[in-house]
Amino acid sequence: MLLRTYCFICGDKSDGETLICRPCWRDLTTDQAACGQCGRSINAGLFCPQCLSRPGAIDKTITLFPYQFPASSLLRSLKYKNQLLLAHEFGQRLAEKIVLIDPKLPERIIPVPLHPARLFARGYNQAHEIARAISRRLAIPLDYRSSKRIRNTLPQFNLKPAERKQNLAGAFAIHRQQLPGRVAIVDDIVTTGNTVNELAKQLKAAGATEVSLWVCAHAA
């Protein structure tokens, strides 16, 4: 017999295998057109104008839901309020969507790393926790050692476009000389996209042939 718990969104009872009841999950994941390369919201077509004119280092993106209430509130609870059960929930749901959309799975999963100072202050990396759940579900190795964040950068959304590039310059280091094959970057929220694009560039410079992005929500 399944244990009963309460839905994180509406408060009604849910089964013990999920933290969000089925009606709320359907509302949370209402289909919204998104660019197949970067994950930005689009009105029509397969790719956004930016990717058509200046493609980034990310080859394809799978997004779980739009960054809007109540998803935004859930992600803040995961990021700042120690609600790590949500990382498992989102990782499981992302894994289900990934196998439906992209049967060509990568050879390793790399969570976006936090700077050691920020990791110490928070106590955990929410991207790592989401990636751990995906790794277990899809049996893909979780690689959290190859990529390091060596600069404690400022939040991107507070900066002007020119400042964003400067802010991320030299932010990541790849600790392996060669990192060949297909790689998936995992993050909780993508805002400007510059952070994951910079990490993808570093991974490709280390030999990655294809870099996917698996993210809970894209704010743009």
Helices, strands, pairings?
Layout (H helix, E strand, L loop, with lengths): L3 E3 L6 E3 L6 H7 L20 H5 L6 E7 L4 H10 L4 H17 L6 E4 L4 H7 L3 H13 L8 E3 L11 H8 L3 E3 L6 E10 L3 H12 L2 E11 L2
Helix pairs in contact: 4-6
Please characterize this protein's 3D structure.
The chain is an alpha/beta fold. The chain folds into two domains: 30 residues, no CATH class; 187 residues, Rossmann fold (3-Layer(aba) Sandwich). 36% of the residues lie in helices and 20% in strands. It has a four-stranded parallel sheet with strand order 3-8-7-4. A hairpin with a 6-residue loop joins strand 1 and strand 2. The longest helix is centred in the middle third of the chain and has 17 residues. The radius of gyration is 17 Å and the shape is globular. The model has no long low-confidence stretch (mean pLDDT 86).
